[in-house]
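Thread title: Can someone regenerate the structure for this chain?

I was given the following input by a collaborator and told the matching structure tokens would be attached. They weren't. Posting the sequence so someone can regenerate them.
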Amino acid sequence: MDLLFLSRRIFLGDGSHEAPLHGGIVVDTQGIIRLVLRSPQEVNSYLYNIESEAVYDFGDLVLMPGLIDANVHINEPGRKDWEGFVTATKAAAAGGFTTIIDRPSNASPPTISVASLKAKTATARGKIYVDVGFWGGIVPGNGDQLAPLLAAGVMGLQCTLCGSAPPVGEEFPSIDGALLEEILQRLEAENEDEGVIAVHAELPLAVDIPVDDDATKKYDSFLVTRPPAMEVAAMQQLSRLAQRYPRRRLHALNVSSAEVLTTAEACQRAGGQLTVETCPHYLALSAEEVPECGTEFKTWPPIRERSNQERLWRALRPGGVIRMIASDHSPATPGVRCLTGGRGRGNFLKAWPGINSLQLSLPVVWTAGGGRGGARDDLPLSLADLHRLMCWQPAELCGLDRFKGRITEGYDGDFCIWSPEEEFTVAPEELYTATKATPYAGRRLRGVVHATVVRGLHVYQQFEGFGQPLGKVLLRKSSRKVVKFVRM
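Best answer:
Regenerated them for you:
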């Protein structure tokens, strides 16, 4: 029998209702939405005439489409102690995410061949609490693997233009602009039009900036080494390529500098398929507040000044240059983060760059967006904005928008049930990630996830904990004109 989900605040995300409605959602035994009840009268009529297996009434909690994060580092196999499938997907579920897409770089081996993709999917099955898809990696020497990776089901291809930190950089080296263009030419020659190419968009400096070795525990010692010019140069390169190869969509990952926005906007207006994302930490944290030895704040590109932050918020408006928000969740063990005792503690120049934020992305963005980020300066971030930035646009980027990202008949019954008004204080020990260090520790945030539902099944409930690991591996099977997904 079908399941019935009720709420006085259902946000459909289908474009028909900007305001939440009082109604219900019927999900069939396959986890697919069969019917949307758009009023209390329709709910009463349904209950009178049809028997459901179970009725879940969430009262005044917001029920909206499950969130989608297209930028998550799951480091298994190889570095499970940094972050594994169980811990990452539990954190995702507790944060209201029903689908996450794994970056290819931090596992060992990285996802740069069909064989390594198979190793990833084999490791994931049976232990994931939300649906998981995968990016394939572009590195020097694996050009013959890219079309096979796309055919094997990755959501797209991803590379970095600036070397990763050790030990990842040895296994997932950067590529330069010439090789990226060669890859674009190769895919075009192979008539492979599908799949976005996502890029960590920083270019190395021609001359390294000298650092003060006596001030490595101060954030400024690190910030000056990665100036906005690195992002600007990379965005200029991506803009040229997007216009030169208009059939291929390029996507700039985790953009931090607002100085790149003019270039990206000009490219979009010229017809280039270039999209941009930013991250919760660039919107909620600023360089001025990073404490001495606070290496949990370190990431690439870096968290910048408050003045930069305000410009990012303006670019998030509907129709703005920045299309989506993704976590770039990339935790690591305390020793690698220089968070353990000893002389190396707090060394910003040696610490691993990455923010632990997957479980907290929703409340971080919702809290920081209070009073700004909406359609007008005098309006706060709305549910419609949140859905667009953290659900629908990520679904569209990854080709999931035919069955995820909105509440409508025929789509997966994936829901985030939460209270926008409820507040809590971040306690690292309550995070489900493999490691607990986060720059949000002790912060008061607004927005509490009460339940997460994947295809009609509760995978997380605030007070009951987790259900079974019922998430599925998402593999995209493609042809020239038709894209379908196999959920395994």
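Residues 3-60 form one domain.
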